[in-house]
Amino acid sequence: MIDSHCHLAGPEFADDLGEVIARGRAKGLERALVILAADDQREIDQSVAVATAWPNVRFGVGIHPHAAGTYAADPAAAATTVASAIDAQPLTRGLGEIGLDYHYDFAPHAVQQQVFREQIRLAATRRLPIIIHTREAEDDTFAILAEEHAGDVGGVFHCFTGDRAMARRALDIGFHLSLAGIVSFPKAVELQEVARMVPIDRLLIETDSPFLAPVPHRGKRNEPAYVARVAEVIGELRGVPAAAIGEATRNNFNRLFNP
After folding, report:
1. Which CATH code fits 2-257?
2. Which end of the chain is more exposed for a tag (fewer CB within 10 A), N or C?
3. Which pTM was predicted?
4. Strand partners for 96
5. How far apart are CA 30 and CA 35, in angstroms?
6. Domain ranges within the chain, ordered by starting residue
7. How far is residue 165's CA from residue 4's CA, in Å, rounded to a whole number?
8. What are 155-186's pLDDT values in tens digits?
9. Which residues lie across from 60 on neighbouring strands?
């Protein structure tokens, strides 16, 4: 089993990183994809400690849309920052998380869009799949993916929370969907429908830890070990054992990210 998206290099895990990793391994985790903010030197530095403690981890590196405003004067500089961070971390296997977030509007939409475009272009150059964050920006996200020919790059919509129609749009352009602990929330009815309909060979599972812990851990700090609960819930929804979900998503991860 693989946690396809977590933030183990963040400060939330600095004090007990070894114990968190041990709990993940005890739950059968082979590896995790750890997301790094390319413009956060503390995370880039901490990635060395994470990789030392868990040699099987791999990394995704990008500029989150919340930070896009930093590059308002020169959006292309975002890609330069990401490229430098990728070069500094040889275990990088994905570019992200990148995308658009219109919920908080921490950066102007036009700036977010251009920073997103620049990073997709870098991903194409580096031949890395992209890890997409999109919130309340569905149409613009898909428009940019089409205009930048991102289907040729490939990737995943991380922590997918859309409905069946949005899931179909993502699948139709060749992307994977990654489901997190939200699928276990009682009111997440539409997302549970997505969990039932996504083709098994296009499914990933994640924690997005330290955020979004699944039931019955909701409200606590999330961690990679809890991806086992995500697999369990999806297995229940699809009528198959959790182990089958873990194995299928493991194979999908390895095919997409070539770890």
Report:
1. 3.20.20.140
2. C
3. 0.97
4. 131
5. 17
6. 2-257
7. 23
8. 999 999 999 999 999 999 999 999 999 999 99
9. 35, 94
